[in-house]
Design goal:
By secondary structure, this protein is mostly helical. The protein contains 33 helices and no strands.
């Protein structure tokens, strides 16, 4: 028979019974009993455990004696043994289940049911006993009885914890999503401090991208809670969380503003939602959130950050378009200047000043204005780390101006002061690039090889790529000329001298048509055409790298660049998804794997 319990259950019981938790005395009988019991020789073990139980009257030896009988199908003996034990100890719940197991194995299901029901009916208003009985039912997959137990426990305890988590878990197993969601939210009635717990469990139980029914049930239940409990802000917080999970940032901003006003938070919560919206490129929603905070005025503690981030959002939104003009960039720069005039150039406005430096240096080719502004920042009372950041930025401006050795001096200062820090690694990489630009390839490679162990994956990956480029294309008998020409083109690209960089690469291809760095040349041309906003040409060159040189180190880079062009520049997310998918399946160890997986899931969820 053993239709319900069987051998898997036996293994579980053997493991349980073998625990040292009981800490019972041992003699030769118990040792021999344990020996045979562990081997599954229950007939021999029975003899010794009967002696041990009669001698010590302990629950452990009762359990083992019982199972020795049970698995020999001596059900009459089992029944008598348990009945006698229950008269001595009517409080151990597990013993009632032992008797019910005998009833089930002897086809007396009604009597077994009576035991289960009586256990529930006789529950006392003691939480630990409710927990014990509920756990006992759940461990046997008797979910309906477990559900009845916890509901009875809630009723008789009346106040305090109402077993919401246990009930929600059971409703999930029983595929009753509405009840599951209701119980998770009921936990917040008991204590709002459980909000993170509730959010964690709900995020595991609901797939917000595909489970339309459960998502709608959750929305309705939160709305109902808000209406019933207008003074409890925890449900407004749940609505914000709900909208963020759905990536409906407009709703999240709206709820955050309402809650911000209700609690007089001066924009703190709205700033958090604005940052999430910004990170997800929900630019218009982020701008609305920042405008709300800016509306509090300069005395607000978040004012300067809100201004800085709003300008950053607007600039990023412009530069991610399919095309933008220099006049549009000039207009953005004027917005930055106006903001700085209103705020003043102080430590509070460093972020805005830094963004404007980058616009002048890298988008408007006005390195003189950029240099003046970065020096203004350096003159402010900065922390050591902030000063290091500004030195790196100033070095980058020197690279654009063509003063690469002035840049090198600044990079070396930062590298020396922060040798064990990521910012120091960044400076070291940039300094290695300077030597690479100048043709000092061996020294550059030595520095790059050190950086392969950087804690920053991006720096380590970039260092590895540049090191391999030098290594693979500078054999013992080969000239340095093509690599130097490529490095010159790389420097021209960094200086945004796109036409000159193309001419240099064309000349390289003409002089060295069969050189090994053809894939690097193609990839560099694609980068240049990106800078020129010539997306068709960029796609053409990246595609050649991907299809003809996918086995080389630039294959996944090309696929990721193609995905981003299609997603952001050409607004073709379905085409972008093809390349994100290619990274996942063809480039398993890629640096872009995690981001590509997230992008692919998001796009396919929206278009399936």
């Amino acid at each position: 028979m053993w239709s319900k319990y069987g051998w898997p259950f036996l293994v579980f019981l053997l493991l349980l019974a073998g625990s040292d938790a009981y800490a019972q005395p041992q003699d030769n009988d118990t040792k021999l009993g344990g020996h045979y019991y562990g081997k599954g020789e229950f007939e021999k073990a029975e003899i010794y455990y009967e002696k041990s139980y009669n001698k010590y009257d302990a629950q452990l030896y009762f359990d083992r004696y019982y199972y020795c009988l049970f698995y020999q199908q001596k059900f009459d003996d089992c029944e008598k043994l348990v009945e006698k034990r229950l008269k001595k100890d009517p409080y151990t719940v597990e013993n009632y289940f032992k008797l019910a197991a005998v009833y089930e194995e002897t086809e007396r299901l009604d009597e077994a049911t009576q035991i289960y029901q009586k256990l529930i009916d006789d529950l006392q208003p003691i939480q630990s006993r409710v927990d014990a009985l509920g756990d006992a039912f759940q461990s046997r997959a008797m979910y309906d009885y477990a559900l009845e137990t916890y509901l009875k426990g809630r009723k008789i305890l009346r106040k305090g914890y109402g077993f919401q988590l246990e009930l929600a878990a059971l409703y999930s197993v029983l595929n009753r999503p509405a009840d599951m969601i209701a119980e998770y939210l009921n936990l917040l009635d008991y204590s709002p401090t459980y909000i993170r717990t509730v959010q964690t469990y709900l995020s595991r139980a609901i797939d917000f991208e595909s489970d339309i029914e459960r998502v709608e049930l959750l929305r309705q239940e939160i709305l109902l809670k808000v209406q019933k409990n207008p003074d409890q802000t925890v449900y407004n917080e749940m609505f914000i969380w709900y909208y963020l999970q759905k990536k409906e940032f407009a709703g999240a901003v709206m709820q955050a503003k309402a809650l911000d006003k209700k609690n007089n938070e001066s924009g703190r919560r709205v700033m958090e939602i604005a940052s999430v919206s910004y990170a997800n490129r929900a630019y218009s929603d982020a701008v609305k959130a920042y405008d709300y905070v800016i509306g509090f005025g300069q005395s607000n503690p978040y004012y300067h950050t809100a201004v800085e981030n709003k300008l950053g959002v607007q600039f990023e939104q412009l530069t991610l378009k399919k095309s933008f003009t220099k006049d549009q960039i000039v207009a953005v720069a004027l917005d930055f200047e106006s903001a700085l005039s209103a705020m003043g150039r102080s430590k509070k406005s460093i972020g805005t000043m830094r963004q404007l430096v980058k616009i002048y240096a890298f988008y408007l080719d006005d390195s003189d204005k950029a240099m003046v502004l970065v020096n203004e920042i350096i003159a402010l009372p900065l922390s050591k780390h902030e000063l290091a950041e500004m030195k790196i930025l100033k070095g980058d401006i020197y690279v654009v101006k063509g003063d690469i050795w002035e840049a090198s001096l600044l990079y070396m200062q930062v590298e020396k002061e922060f040798s064990e820090d990521v910012i120091g690694h960044e400076a070291k990489f940039k300094n290695a690039q300077v030597f690479y630009y100048d043709g000092e390839f061996e020294y550059a490679k030595a520095q790059l090889d050190v950086l392969k162990a950087s804690t920053s994956k991006l720096i380590a990956n970039n260092a590895m790529q540049l090191s391999l480029l030098i290594q693979d294309n500078l054999g013992i008998d080969t000239t340095q000329a093509p690599v130097q020409m490529y490095a010159n083109a790389d420097l021209l690209l960094a200086q945004h001298k796109y036409s000159e960089a193309i001419v240099m690469l064309d000349s390289l291809e003409k002089r060295f048509p069969f050189h090994s760095m053809v894939d690097e040349v193609l990839f560099k041309k694609a980068e240049i055409y990106e800078g020129l906003q010539k997306w068709d040409l960029a796609i053409e060159f990246y595609t050649v790298v991907l299809e003809s040189y996918s086995h080389d180190i630039l294959g996944d880079d090309a696929a990721f660049r193609l995905a981003e062009i299609y997603e952001y520049r050409l607004e073709n997310p379905q085409k972008a998804a093809e390349y994100y998918r290619k990274i996942l399946f063809d480039f398993g160890g890629s640096l872009y794997t995690a981001e590509s997986r997230e992008k692919f899931r998001s796009i396919t969820a929206n278009y399936n």
